[in-house]
Amino acid sequence: MTEPSFYPQTLVDYAQIGSAVGTLAAVVVSLFLANRRPSPLLKISCSLRVIVWYQQQGKAPEYLTFNAVNEGETPATIVNVAWCLSLPFKKKRWAIQDVSTSDSVVRNPQLPHKLQHGESATFLIGLQGQYDWTQNIQKSGFFNEGIQSRKDCEHLRAVIFTSVGKPSICKPDKAVLDLIWEHQSMHLSSAKSQK
Hints:
The chain is of the alpha+beta class and about 200 residues long.
């Protein structure tokens, strides 16, 4: 009597092994697809905009804008608008931007704000009048302590946080960075003259 062998000896044995491996791979792939969490995909931008309307008199008001478009298939809930400053060899610094302000021209969406696929949200922050954001640049420790040169502005990022904790980050337009540096340099020169 011959001893049983555990090694495949016929073509049928190889087919059964291949079938078992294929079944196992199909189970692993189906479990991966069933249990993965789709995350929101926001495309964001930060720029300066002018708003023109039919009853406008004088200079058109200018606004700092944060715009978010949901390009993902899942809904996204915006919970915060922020800034991130990541200078080389220094710890990242984060600052929440208040977008709850409104004026006679614009009304910002309330946070948290839910976006379905293809929807967008724009947050406008006034650069004149009662809520002049440029005054905040000169008073803000976030900008004063972190930005000492125009080159430092290149490390500034606009951030929009969603409810799942995944931030969407973009570099602000050059006009925004120039505006920040213009007001920051005025603050730095006035601080030096006071010493």
